[in-house]
Here is the input.
Amino acid sequence: LNGYNNSALAEAIFDVENELFNEAFSVDNSDVIAEILTELSNHNRREEERKNAMLQLIKMTREGSQEVWQEHFKTILLLLLETLGDNNGHIRALSLRVLREILKFQPDRFKDYAELTILKILEAHKDPIREVSRAAEECATTVASCMPAEQCVRVLVPIVQTAEFPVNLAAIKMETKVIESFDRETLLKIIPDVMPGLLKGYD
Here is the structure.
């Protein structure tokens, strides 16, 4: 009986300690994310601090802190997309790299923001700084492999048809990458929507 009581007591203590650890971890994460959001709001200022904030965000993304994304995803996404207009090319490129990491680890959260995200990434292909346009290309490839394929095509079709170079070419490349994942039946369904834009783009 004493053995059972000791075992139950040890288990109860472990549960309490585990709960306290989780609470502390949550508080720490909340503090960190609050600092990150504050720094990302400093557009065109405090460049080193914002770089550090984005590197910290990449680390948190890879660690899979679900509670952070549940509560702060929209704010983080909008701040990163706004940062694509920053004066500093290194900052713009880093924001695309952060976006790419989030796309890889939290793809489902982009469902309601697919059009905005894709458009901003495609527009970054126009950036005169090669580091930024290269980061945009890498991010576009990740979008094509991580976002739902049919949703991507719905967003890309009008962009391919109406955008100017180099955005239309970037959209065609992304669309081609997405289409590679379709089975024959799905491909036959979308060809009438996709072909006019592709023909225009290669004209």
